[in-house]
Amino acid sequence: MKESYSKLDENNAGHISFEKLITSFPSQLSPCQMRFLHCLYDITTQNQLFGADEFIAMNNLSRSITKLSPSTQEMYEQLPFETLEESMTQYTELFSSVDRTARGRIGVGALLQILGTTLERHLEPDTSLAKQIMSTMNKDYDDDVPRLEFISYIPYFLYLEGMT
C-alpha cells in the first residue's frame, strides 16, 4: 500500500488529492459512497496532510464499505449530505471519547453507549434495538468494533437516528 501511495504522491509532498486517492478505490463504490469518503477526506485534511497512513486507512475503509450487506450499503444512498460532516465529526469524537486507551477499537458495550447517546435511548444488550444493531453489524456483545468498521457504519447509525 505504501508503494501505491508513493506512486500517487508524485512530487513527494506527503499529500495526495482526493482525485488521485479515488483511483485506488474499488470500482463498485456508488456515487453516494464516494461522497461519504470525500467528506471524510475533507475532515481529515482540515488539520493535517493526507499522508501514507491516511491513504492506507481510507483504502481499507473503501474496501470494507463494499463488503457491507446490501441493505447496509443502501443506507449510503439516504445520507443527509448537508449535515454529514457534522454527524461524522460527532460520531468519530464519541468513538475517541470511549476509546480511552487509543487502541483504535471499542467493545460492543461502548458502541451501545455511543448509540444510546445519539439516539437518546438507553440501550441494554438485551433490548430489541440493541440486538438488531448487533445482528446488522454481525457482532456479539463480547466483540470489539475497530474504528474503520465503526466509521463504515455511520450511515446505518444515521438511519437509526432518523427512525427515532
From TrEMBL:
Q: Which domain of life is it from?
A: Eukaryota
InterPro entries from the entry?
EF-hand-dom_pair
Protein name from the UniProt record: EF-hand domain-containing protein
Please name the source species: Ciona intestinalis
The organism's lineage is: Eukaryota, Metazoa, Chordata, Tunicata, Ascidiacea
